[in-house]
Design brief:
single chain; 459 residues; mainly alpha; 3 domains; two-stranded antiparallel sheet; globular
Length: 459
């Protein structure tokens, strides 16, 4: 079990490092949208290149590495295809290649949905190496054990209802990778790069959202258990819901094989996500909130918990995912309502991971080193959540052409200026929340108190 904790901690370090790097790049994107100061960026391609690396680090890498870290918490398996250290180093090398591409001149940025790319061999090599490393990290006996079983002592690291949720997220991730592969096999290689990558990543990108949301549901189980002292859903019921959530994804490879009929291909994956995520998530929300109210009424949850990172993280995540659902339903064309929808949705996943990280520290024998930092940790998810909500709301209100930055951006109305101003303020607030999270995590990771030094020697 100790070895599992070590590798869980290392994968989460990779995830947090990617989030930190992506967050730094996001500052350029906020500047590129805000009226009056957006003229500081005169090269639209540079902003687009930053956007592409930011999206890959802050969404694909952050989420995937975090899921890999959660998977490592499942008790020890004696079967590993490759050295886990080698797999982790391969993932890190992939990330270095991906980031290096940002400074290579004359690289074409392609803003494909889900996984935008820089059209250069270094970028593809880095992205592919990282994705392959995550896949290999998932391929051991823990994944192939009975889907409804909880391995011995699993409750020591993770709630029992969360174990199969992690496995379900892994299955969804692997299905996404398979979908990418089948899309690549059947796609017409002669189409223009913009269309090629849009089609290539459309199907698997939709499936990845299921994996990310499953991991968010796992985080909710952690957070509500911290608040109430018990799980809001049983292992048996949660397993049934996970199966219902994942089962439709097995048709995704077949949908991918129809990629040469783009209209059918695009609409089927859109329909899959529209109807596949919303019901289960809402059921989890109802059960979790019911548990919180019951615990408050019976005195199992005191008023101090309302100011905790667990409560703020859970509340922010729920509000953001519901906002994402609403904005998604309001999409009518290719405008900023689309990024408003997905920024709310990915913000919901991100803030749940941030709050859960604080709950994982004790499992890593780590402790936030000061009372001041603990207070900041309590409020950090709320700061990030409010900022991300305003960012998404501003984009939704502005409702203007998407994927333009700097001097390319044309603002025609007062409402667009107001919306972009709200977006800019929200973006800066979200970045502040992100910076606080990174600062707290780094200070905790490298806490040099005598007690922490004894703990880190074990790792």
């Amino acid at each position: 079990m100790q070895t599992n904790i070590i590798y869980s901690k290392r994968w989460l370090a990779v995830a947090i490092g990617a989030l930190m790097t992506g967050g730094l790049l996001s500052l350029i994107l906020v500047i590129g949208r805000v009226p009056f100061i957006n003229t500081l960026i005169t090269d639209p391609n540079f902003a687009k290149k930053c956007l592409i690396v930011h999206v890959n680090l802050s969404i694909f890498v952050w989420f995937s590495a975090y899921i890999a870290g959660l998977f490592q918490l499942i008790p020890e398996s004696k079967f590993h295809i490759f050295s886990r250290s080698s797999v982790l180093w391969a993932a890190i090398i992939g990330l270095v290649l991906l980031v290096i591409t940002l400074v290579i001149p004359d690289v074409e940025p392609i803003l494909s949905n889900y996984i935008p790319v820089l059209n250069h061999p270094f970028f593809f090599a880095g992205l592919g190496l990282f994705a392959l490393s995550v896949c290999v990290a998932f391929l051991d006996a823990r994944l192939f054990s009975s889907f409804t079983s909880t391995l011995e002592n699993a409750h020591n690291a993770i709630p029992s209802a969360a174990v199969n949720g992690i496995k379900a997220a892994v299955v969804a991730f692997l299905l996404a990778v398979i979908t990418f592969g089948i899309s690549w096999f059947f796609i017409d290689k002669s189409v223009a790069p913009d269309l090629f990558f849009e089609l290539l990543f459309w199907g698997g990108g939709h499936v990845l959202q299921f994996a990310n949301v499953l991991a968010m549901l796992v985080a909710w189980i952690f957070l509500v258990k911290k608040l109430t002292g018990s799980e809001f859903i049983s292992k048996k019921i949660s397993t049934v819901l996970y199966i219902v959530f994942v089962l439709p994804l097995f048709i995704a490879p077949y949908f991918a094989s129809q990629i040469q009929s783009p209209g059918i291909y695009l609409s089927k994956f859109t329909t899959l996500m529209q109807h596949g995520i919303f019901p289960i998530v809402c059921l989890f929300i109802i059960l979790a909130i019911k548990k919180i109210f019951e615990s408050k009424a019976t005195g199992k949850m005191d008023s101090g918990q309302i100011r905790s990172s667990a409560f703020n993280g859970f509340a922010a995540s729920v509000i953001l995912i519901l906002t994402g659902f609403i904005f998604g339903a309001l999409i009518r064309g290719s405008d900023t309502m689309i990024p408003a929808h997905y920024h709310a949705a990915i913000g919901a996943v991100t803030v749940s991971f941030m709050a859960m990280t604080y709950e994982l520290f004790p499992r890593f024998s780590l402790e936030i080193p000061s009372e001041k930092l603990q207070k900041l940790a309590n409020w950090q998810p709320a700061i990030y959540g409010i900022g991300q909500f305003l960012f998404a709301a501003g984009l939704a209100y502005a409702r203007m052409l998407r994927k333009v930055y700097g001097e390319e951006q044309i603002v025609n109305s007062v409402s667009q200026k107001v919306g972009l101003g709200i977006m800019g303020f929200g973006g800066l607030l979200a970045v502040t929340g992100g910076v606080l999270f990174i600062w707290i995590a780094l200070r905790t990771w490298w806490n040099r108190s005598p007690q922490a030094k004894l703990v880190t020697n074990e790792f």
